[in-house]
Amino acid sequence: MSKDERRERALNQIRENIARNGHHIYVVSGGSCPRFAYTIGLSEQVSFELILAGAILYLYKDVNQIINNIARELKLVGRFSKTPFAVGSQGIFTLRETHSSWSSSLLLGALDYYQVKEMSVVQIVPDNDHWTVDIPDMSEPWSSTTAGAWRWLHESWTYAIPVNSVATTNIQALRGERTTEAARWEENEWEIFAGAGPDVTENEMRVVPLGTLLAADKSLDPIVDLAVGEGLWRDASSDWHPWHSRK
Fold first, then answer.
1. Average of per-residue pLDDT across 133-145
2. Within this chain, do residues 19 and 54 fall inside the same structural domain, yes or no?
3. Is residue 42 part of a domain?
4. How far apart are CA 70 and CA 66, in angstroms?
5. Which of 3, 36, 69, 220 matches a 20 to 30 Å C-alpha distance to 226?
6. Which InterPro entries does the UniProt entry name for this protein (predicted)?
């Protein structure tokens, strides 16, 4: 299948979902930036699209539920609303308008679909109980200083490791708690935990771009130099120490 054929197939799917549901949800993951998801087609009813950026606490099915529920409520009022949205067990969400430096970089599928260079986009913001380090403030212009986890949205990858490197981590680390152990098991796969790794349950684990954690916490830089099979642990003084390889 050629590039043009793939594009037309994708556009047809978007058209079908808009006709059926009133909008299409586009989820983007992989690479050095956090996952994000946005709508295409909602702007035909409320004059803007929605985006949920980062928020890796939520699984894929949760992301769809959150966006669909909020989109449904917005269609009823037909406009932007500052009223908080409650979405089941997923928490309380508010909306804020985004700066064009974000929308022009992230909503490429929507821009392509409508053949425009810019459009109005509103960010879905989780409550404090569901905040994670990958959630940017998109009302402000993009900046690697204020949105570190999104540093590589506009900057070149600076580490001598694969740009698609990932880390299995836990929710505590993603909520900003100090990481205490790290290991590299494959060329592009790490484990990084706040607390003892064996105590982390499957429900608490998330797989994120390694760049998300490196950008959010500069003290993690030493883990980049680990060879496959090597690990580090951190003491109360935050000093890293080597431990024996799995071999």
1. 93
2. yes
3. yes
4. 6
5. 36
6. DUF4262
**56 and 128 housed in the same domain:** yes
Domain presence at residue 150: no
Whether residue 203 sits in one domain with residue 112: no
160 assigned to some structural domain: no
Query: Count of domains in the chain?
Result: 2
Residues 122 and 233 in one domain: no
- Mean pLDDT within 29-51: 95
Least confident of 13-17, 54-58, 145-149: 145-149
pLDDT digits 0-9 by tens, 56-92 = 999 999 999 999 999 999 999 988 988 999 999 999 9
Is 44 within a domain? Answer: yes
Containing structural domain, residue 73: 3-145
